[in-house]
Specification:
It is built from 12 helices and 9 strands. It has 395 residues and is α+β, with helices and mostly antiparallel strands.
Length: 395
């Protein structure tokens, strides 16, 4: 049998076919490689085991703190392009791990950075940045997903210098072990959605892990119940006074999920290409067959078209010119391409593509969650459609 090529010495070993990474500064490229090396050492070796168990490797949080990657744009001064490529690399290593960070950093920390008062930021952010305190983001509800903007059922009522919160949240990542959950609730006085920082040890708060998931199994999503949860007005985010304020955060995190779709496709390409080169059938590597090459090139093409859209979106974000519909189209388009890419990757692995031993089954399954959260492809399509027609298909 002929010797196999070294997959690491083939051209384009990182899948960056058009050298998008060269758009980063030299310092950002060095930092990205540092993060990539850390992920290879600390996350990749354990990702499959914890995914199979349906548990988050909480012991990794202390190690992650040493990497110091929370708030790369606002705190550390990196470009949105660097932040996006970093998020793609996190996802490439393990989507569950990337989602943990997306919740703590993008949704939770981002909300405080954008919507808290200066005094609140000074009080909360140091421990959040250092991962001494972990956060979660409580927006989605058992009966409210895409329509939660106008249909929030969780309520908050002012009682002197306190608020009393009642309701339920669902699909809240990190909430089984987080220190804080940012709860979005409707103020009964003015019917506006507002944000409240709730310590998970508060009386009346409870979280139960959602079991039997087939996607993002290492993310400990929770059902949250709030029964007369009483918090001081000091824990109401000063700048979170309507859902329009909430959307200031969601616009940014939606683009983060689109970057995850890029990372998913690069992960699928990694696994599928390695397998195609090393797996022999009919006396030769399956990479020698035209149909397999066609599938690999489709995955790569999807990944690079998705990457190109995200690079331009990041440039618009850096220039302060990104709009809601830009991130909506990006999320819809990249996740559609991702679905095709991971399906082709799974196909290349044949039967081995449905067991987690080879990595592709986890990539394939995790893509379904990425496709759905931060606004489904359908809702984001309609957000974009509203922008280009001036006619709203939903309210």
């Amino acid at each position: 049998m002929a010797s196999l090529p070294d997959i690491n010495n083939l051209p384009y070993p990182d899948g960056d076919f058009f050298a998008f990474e060269q758009l980063l500064t030299a310092a950002e490229r060095e930092r990205l490689q540092e993060i990539r090396d850390w992920l290879s050492k600390e996350v990749t070796p354990i990702a499959g085991e914890y995914w199979n168990r349906g548990e988050f490797p909480r012991q990794i949080i202390e190690k992650l703190a040493g990497l110091d990657i929370i708030s790369p744009v606002r705190r550390q001064g990196h470009s949105h392009l660097f932040a996006g490529m970093m998020h793609a690399e996190l996802t490439r290593a393990d989507t569950s791990f990337a989602t943990f960070l997306g919740v703590h950093d993008g949704l939770f920390t981002g909300s405080i950075e954008v919507l808290a008062s200066e005094e609140q930021k000074a009080r909360w952010l140091p421990d959040i940045y250092s991962l001494k305190k972990i956060g979660a983001f409580g927006l989605t509800e058992p009966l409210g997903g895409s329509d939660v903007a106008g249909g929030t059922r969780t309520i908050a009522e002012r009682d002197g210098d306190h608020w009393v919160i009642n309701g339920a949240k669902r699909w809240i990542g990190n909430a089984t072990f987080s220190d804080y959950v940012l709860i979005w609730a409707k103020d009964v006085a003015d019917n506006q959605v507002k944000g409240f920082l709730v310590e998970t040890a508060t009386e009346g708060y409870s979280a139960s892990k959602i079991e039997n998931k087939i996607s993002l199994r290492s993310v400990e999503n929770a059902d949250i119940t709030l029964k007369n949860v009483r918090i001081s007005d000091d824990f109401r985010l000063a700048g979170a006074n309507s859902f329009a304020d909430t959307n200031k955060v969601l616009k940014t995190t939606r683009s983060g999920v689109a970057w995850q779709a890029v990372g998913q496709q690069l992960a699928a390409f990694d696994v599928a290409r390695r397998y195609a080169v090393q797996r022999h059938q009919f006396g030769k590597p399956i990479a020698a067959f035209q149909l397999v090459q066609e599938q690999l090139v489709t995955i790569l093409g999807n990944a690079m078209s998705s990457m190109s859209m995200m690079v331009r979106l990041a440039q618009l974000e850096d220039a302060g010119e990104a709009r809601d519909e830009h991130s909506a189209l990006a999320k819809a388009f990249t996740t559609e391409r991702m679905r095709e890419s991971v399906a082709k990757g799974r196909s290349i692995l044949g039967g081995n593509g449905i067991v987690t031993d080879y990595g592709m089954a986890r990539i394939f399954a995790d893509a379904e969650a990425v496709y759905s959260y931060e606004g489904t492809a359908e809702i984001n399509t309609l957000v974009t459609g509203r922008a280009v027609t001036g006619v709203a298909a939903f309210h």
